[in-house]
């Protein structure tokens, strides 16, 4: 007789006055509390300023992955097509026709990567962080058209406070860059070249991360030597 697979558990704690704990209550919690189990196991969690995105895991006889979000939605960052907060994990219907492989939550915007390398963003765009070439905000996911081509297959996205980065297949990074001139403001994804002390030891970057107003994407963990 096969032993029953242990179910995954989802716990949350901390500030909860905008529903980000997913407990259906608008209150803080000083201790970890168990959330009701979801239909599918979770493969990735992303915590933003006051919202959460969860990517469930499909395969193995289970249906395709699902993207859920909850918490503050006043900038459209939940992707539900409105500007409302959500107090519990709710599926983003837009992605019912896509297979999503990676998600990220910024301060008030969100990013999603499909299995085919396409990028979608939603939420606050007042600093150009959505990558659509303007400063518009969106309450439903919108594809970033400059990404996802054959030579720009995206594997990961990292959303910071007011900026975004994507990691391309092969280890290249593109950062959402804001450039001002006297006539217009241009917002676009620009290729980043990391500087290394020893060029002969180049390695592919395999992950990126954004926190607040800075980002990190080490090519070589030797870039972080241990302190003696």
Automatic annotation (TrEMBL):
For this protein, the record's SUPFAM superfamilies field holds: RCC1/BLIP-II
Each RCC repeat occupies one of these ranges, namely 8-58, 65-116, 117-170
Q: Which Pfam families match?
A: RCC1 (PF00415)
Q: Which UniProt keywords apply?
A: Repeat
As given in the record, the signal peptide range reads none
Family annotation (InterPro entries): RCC1/BLIP-II, Reg_chr_condens, Ub_ligase/GEF_domain
Which superkingdom? Eukaryota
Q: Which PANTHER family match?
A: OS09G0560450 PROTEIN, REGULATOR OF CHROMOSOME CONDENSATION
Protein name, UniProt field: Uncharacterized protein
Organism expressing this protein natively: Kingdonia uniflora
């Amino acid at each position: 007789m096969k032993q029953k697979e242990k179910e995954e558990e989802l716990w949350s704690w901390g500030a909860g006055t905008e529903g980000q704990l997913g407990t259906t209550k608008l209150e803080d919690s000083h201790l970890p509390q168990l959330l009701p189990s979801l239909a599918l196991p979770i493969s990735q969690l992303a915590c933003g300023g006051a919202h959460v995105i969860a990517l469930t895991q499909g395969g193995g006889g289970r249906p395709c992955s699902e993207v859920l979000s909850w918490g503050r939605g006043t900038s459209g960052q939940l992707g539900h097509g409105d500007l409302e907060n959500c107090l519990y994990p709710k599926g983003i219907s837009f992605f019912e026709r896509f297979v999503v492989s990676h998600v990220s939550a910024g301060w008030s915007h969100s990013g999603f990567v499909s299995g085919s390398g396409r990028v979608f963003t939603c939420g606050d765009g007042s600093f150009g962080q959505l990558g659509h070439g303007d400063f518009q905000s969106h309450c439903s996911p919108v594809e970033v058209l400059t990404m996802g081509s054959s030579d720009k297959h995206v594997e990961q996205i990292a959303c910071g406070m007011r900026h975004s980065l994507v990691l391309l297949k092969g280890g290249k990074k593109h950062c959402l860059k804001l450039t001002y001139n006297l006539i217009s403001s241009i917002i676009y994804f620009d290729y980043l070249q990391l500087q290394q002390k020893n060029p002969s030891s180049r390695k592919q970057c395999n992950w990126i991360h954004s926190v607040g107003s800075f980002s990190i994407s080490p090519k070589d963990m030797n870039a972080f030597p241990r302190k003696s």
